[in-house]
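Let us practice reading a record.
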Amino acid sequence: MGKTSILMVIGFNIIFATIGYNLSQTSIRGYENYIDYYNRSVCRHIGSSAANMAANELTFSPNWRVGYPTTNFGGGTYKVDAISLDSGRVRLDVTATYNGVTQYPVVTLGLTKFSKFAYYSVIEGAIYWITGDTVWGPFHTQQKLTVSGRPVFYGKVSAKNGIQKSPSSSKPEFYAGFQSGVDIKLPNDFSALKSHAQGGGMYWNNKDIYVEFLANGNVVWRDGSWTATPNTVPLTSLAPNGVIMADNANLHIKGVLNGRVTISATGSSGAAKGNVWVDSSIVYSANPMQTTSTDMLGIVCSNDVIVADNAKNNDPAKGVTIHASILAASGGLKAENYNGRPKAGTLTLLGGVQQYQRGPVGTFNSSTGLIQTGFQKNYRYDDRLMVDSPPLYPTTGTYEVLSWYE
């Protein structure tokens, strides 16, 4: 009995010793894991801070490329190299260290294209966004955002001078947030686009050009009128880099686009030059609302994008459809003879519009809300423009983060 008791005591001691050892090892490993997690977390925060500081440098100085040398920060160090890539992109290579841990975040930034905006205006005038109005993509105005009731904004909204509610009880719905004090100037210098048209695109000077896009990928262009001698070429041969410009002239367009192109018209103010005329609907061969599409059109002009007053555009059963991102530097999207033409159905825009001032496209009876002349509007954002853009479309001059890898 004595031996048995001794063996039992020894056995229990071994068991308890083993359990104690395992608990001790578990505690040690838990502590080591905590220390490792803490070190990695601090190192990650140091790297993120360095990347954010470098991105801020690019925001205020787009040509900044000096980076940061190895710098003490938060008990560790960081180093940032700013490297220029193609298409105006910049890559930030970050090296962050803390207590034996090293991490290498990589952040890629690109210049924000104006095509990102579903709606942009310099002058809003007396226009109110009201109950029933819906904007699907990013929105910006260089004045106050004026609202009445409950308009709905699904993209981020920004305004240089804040918001005005009338009545004060108005409750606009901002599903991606609202930011005041944002200053984004509309470009009026298209010399860079001109250089691209002259070098790798198609450039005409001092002559009005008429362009019809064909669903097979060809382009028919004419000099001076739709009845002039046609020149038919593949779009990729006419403008390999996807930029077409009529300088000191007007550009007339219609058809079905199969491909990617930015067309532009520049010139002094007034109807004589610098306008793009939509002489009939211009649509994609593959509608991105219905199927996968790589077709993309940018329309850039010094003055106005004008829906022509002609028989083709005045069929109320068909209306006019434009698939494009539109930028009008000193004008806007408008309809010719908007208050004198017949009721023309619906003007449908799939894309976005960035304009100096909203242009009129029709008139309506204030009592009934029914269209009296011109068009009613159906504008829908092309969601692809959040991450893609027409070739060499004008930029805001500021950077945004395209990717962030840790």
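A brief commentary: The chain has two domains: 2-104, 186-393.
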